Inverse folding.
């Protein structure tokens, strides 16, 4: 099976490598089809595509849109989107526009537990300040000695009920699907195993996603355990979703799954790349 990696991040959002370095690393790791899917921004795609073309690596545009569903943060990946389409561009602009204010509120909330200067500290770690994210706060809390790694930060901070988490109005799932559709893309539910949902809620999410035009789910994901891969293999078949595969790579120091270094899709699924025309 083709080594396709359809989910990863660059400095344009919360990744640690430039878009071109991500593509070079993917090529070196044997990836045969790559999509760069930065959060809420298309800014890295031109550079990524130019590098991919130079290396003869097949590439599709991508984006990972932050949405809210029943108070939870749900990520929807758009693949093969036209990155000049105005509806998508304006929609992503609206999602990004709240991030700086949210970051200030996160920082104020961290002051409750005696952590000061987090906004400025996290901001210094961004390459794209409009995309300041919990990852940047996580890295700042590691750099300032609060926790030993980002993973442990997310056990005690930045998640619902813990210091540094504030609620935020993202796009709706319906908005994301409208924008992806307008841009001619294919909508994929990102890492469905990561959401803290009961199996009833998960089925409701998947069925709403399907009704709104969602076509695929990530089955093989850097965020999934082997058990979850099997759960989503079955759900993909049950709901008639195409299956995607993506490492969700953010950086060599941070991600335990490197670009292209995850198992193949399980048997019996239709890969989403069959409909991407690449
Ligand atoms: P945001 O879009 O600002 O809410 O930030 C979300 C990002 O934080 C995700 O895309 C991940 O990169 C990172 N993140 C969320 N949860 C965790 C976790 N448990 N461990 C490490 N990184 C996480
Ligand atoms: Mn991220
Ligand atoms: Mn995500
Ligand atoms: Mn991601």
């Amino acid at each position: 099976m083709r080594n396709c990696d359809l989910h990863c991040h660059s400095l344009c959002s919360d990744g640690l490598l430039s878009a071109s370095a991500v593509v070079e690393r993917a090529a070196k790791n044997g990836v045969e089809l790559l999509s760069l899917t930065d959060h809420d921004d298309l800014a890295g795609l031109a550079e990524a595509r130019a590098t991919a073309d130079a290396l003869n690596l097949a590439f599709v545009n991508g984006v990972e849109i932050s949405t809210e569903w029943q108070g939870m943060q749900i990520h929807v990946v758009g693949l093969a989107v036209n990155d000049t389409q105005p509806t998508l561009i304006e929609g992503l602009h609206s999602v990004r526009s709240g991030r700086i204010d949210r970051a200030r509120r996160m920082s104020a909330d961290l002051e409750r537990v005696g952590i000061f200067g987090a906004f400025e500290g996290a901001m210094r770690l961004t390459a794209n300040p409009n995309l300041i994210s919990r990852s940047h706060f996580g890295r700042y809390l590691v750099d300032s000695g609060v926790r030993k790694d980002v993973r442990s930060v997310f056990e005690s901070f930045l998640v619902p009920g813990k210091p540094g988490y504030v609620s935020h109005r993202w796009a709706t799932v319906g908005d994301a699907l409208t924008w992806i559709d307008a841009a001619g893309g294919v909508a994929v539910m990102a890492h469905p195993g990561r959401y803290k949902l009961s199996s009833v809620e998960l089925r409701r999410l998947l069925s709403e996603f399907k009704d709104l035009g969602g076509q695929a789910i990530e089955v093989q994901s850097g965020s999934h355990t082997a058990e979850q891969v099997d759960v989503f293999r079955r759900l993909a078949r049950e709901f008639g979703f195409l299956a995607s595969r993506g490492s969700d790579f953010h950086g060599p120091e941070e991600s335990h799954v490197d670009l292209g270094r995850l198992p193949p899709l399980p048997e019996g699924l239709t890969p989403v790349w069959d409909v991407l025309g690449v």
Summary: The chain is about 40% helix and 15% strand.
